[in-house]
Amino acid sequence: MLGSEFKENSIRVLHLIPHLGQGGAEAALATLLSAPQPGIEHVVCTIIAAPHHFDVTQRVILGAASRTSPSPSIALHLRRAIRDVRPHVLHCWMYHANLLSLASIGFGARVLWSIHSESPNSSKALTRGISAACARLSHFFPERVVYVAEAGRVKHEEYGYAAARGLVIPNGINTERFRPKTFRRPSGSTIRLGMVARYDPSVKGHHFLIDVLAKHPLRNRLQIVFAGAGCDTAPELLDHLARTGLLGQVRLYGALTSIELLYAELDMMIIPSYSEALPMSLLEGAAAGLVICASRVGDIPWLGLPNEVLFDPGDAHGCASALEAALALVGAPETAIRQRSLIYPRFSAHTIARRYAELYSELVEAHRLRKC
User: Fold this and answer.
1) Does residue 178 fall inside a structural domain?
2) Do residue 168 and residue 241 come from a single domain?
3) Same domain (yes/no): 231, 281
4) CATH number, position 364
5) CA 146, 149, 154, 159 torsion: positive or negative?
6) Per-position pLDDT tens, the chain of length 372
7) How far is it, in rounded angstroms, from Cα 350 to Cα 364?
8) How far apart, in Å, do the first and last CA atoms of the chain sit?
9) CA–CA separation, 34 and 83 (whole Å)
């Protein structure tokens, strides 16, 4: 019998995700859950047992595995959750969960995959193999494949993902939580520059940025913040900062739950990634009115940022020039308004939640009509 916590006519959505630790996809799910839509009820099922970085008010069925590698026990965990929740839609987040959705066969849930990376060619061999398997499965198993960026959709479909099932719904953020600060530092003072990303230098570009900043003519004006899982504990990050003489200008933080407080302290943000689809930190920083400097990856070039603050990934000279152009924008009265206007309302949590609610309803209605 269906649990009494669900309303009789609601659409029940079970979200399958590796964990609720810090990460862009995890933040996107938490943001979606924070913007409830009429007639949609959510439950989260994690694959592994890990501390939650994001607090969600919805029910969470916690996994017991220590890692996301496919196994019979993980499949049984999902099947137990489906028997319990009896979802209309199984919404899977990222490659491992997408592949694991095969364990839902026989329950009748509409399966929705979501992909949050720009490229299907992960740096990890296991993830590459899972992505390749998902590319083949995408032609006949999931109802739809959702990408958070058009650039990601194009690259995955070139790789073999089914074009007929793909659509783009970008990440959303809480635009009330991330708002421009009222205090602006006077022109000519120290500028506080932040990079908000987990420590994953082969993707996020931490060491590339350090090398650029170490040689930049304006380096002495900068106070630098690295924030994200692993940034406060990675010895190679500390060593590199010490070797370049930047350590005295840097603060290092791990995963921060109240990240909006950090944005309120910053003047600008830099995203030097080699690969991104649509980074949450960029959306949050822009909504908070920060000057943005970023590499031309994913959908970043089409957000409407000034071209002079963008650079090609891995281009040290281009990054230095873009950083100088971005620094010149700090303190301009119109900057915060312009940055926020790029984000609100098209990336607001409620805008994105409505799009997902419409998709869930479409999947359930299409299934009902097929049964008639």
Assistant:
1) no
2) no
3) yes
4) 3.40.50.2000
5) negative
6) 344 567 778 999 999 999 998 889 999 999 999 999 999 999 999 999 888 888 899 999 998 777 777 778 999 999 999 999 999 999 999 999 999 999 999 999 999 999 999 999 876 889 999 999 999 999 999 999 999 999 999 999 999 999 999 999 999 999 999 998 765 555 568 999 999 999 999 999 999 999 999 999 999 999 999 999 999 999 999 999 999 999 999 999 999 999 999 999 999 999 999 999 999 999 999 999 999 999 999 999 999 999 999 999 999 999 999 999 999 999 877 888 888 898 988 999 999 999 999 999 999 998 777 776
7) 21
8) 24
9) 25
Q: Which range marks the domain in which residue 265 is found? A: 191-341
Whether omega for the bond prior to residue 301 falls within 30 degrees of 0, making it cis, is no
Rounded to the nearest 10 degrees, how much is the dihedral formed by the CA atoms of 276, 28, 323, 225?
Answer: -120
Spatial distance between the Cα atoms of 101 and 301, rounded to a whole number of angstroms: 33
Same domain, 205 and 143: no
**Same domain assignment for residues 97 and 210:** no
165 with 249, same domain: the answer is no
Does 252 lie in the same domain as 138? no
